[in-house]
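I hope you will forgive my troubling you with a question about protein structure. The matter concerns a single protein, recorded as an amino acid sequence and a row of backbone structure tokens. Please examine both parts with care and let me know of anything in them that strikes you as inconsistent. Here, with my thanks, is the record as I have it:
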Amino acid sequence: MATGQRDYYDVLGVPKNADAAEMKKADRGTVRTEGRGQEPYMIHWMEGREYRTKISTLRGDYRDEKGIIRNRLRAWEVSDFKPRPEDLYQERLYGVLWARPKPNSTRDELEFRSVTEADLAREIVELQVRALATRLRGLAGLT
């Protein structure tokens, strides 16, 4: 849902211990195959109005010279914390995947959490540190 106070969606702000009405509403989800051709759509509401966008449109799907369907999304690297200039959507951080070792297992326990104000503050600090490092490298003639 759009928060109105920030310029991003709180996509992971799902209430814990939701009541039956909330669960029924959430059961439909935001990606559905409805309409002609049963193409999947991302469906969301903002300010009382429903918006639908084809998933293929969001990804920038196209056919390459061999007829294979591809998309224009770049997979983010572990070190990425902001989009690169060539990225299609210039998307922002909207969720953090936390991993911790499961007891008596070789696998990790995974949990997605919504972005917090502290996450956004760390992003600002990281941007400032990288900008300063770039400037210092330039001053030292190391660019």
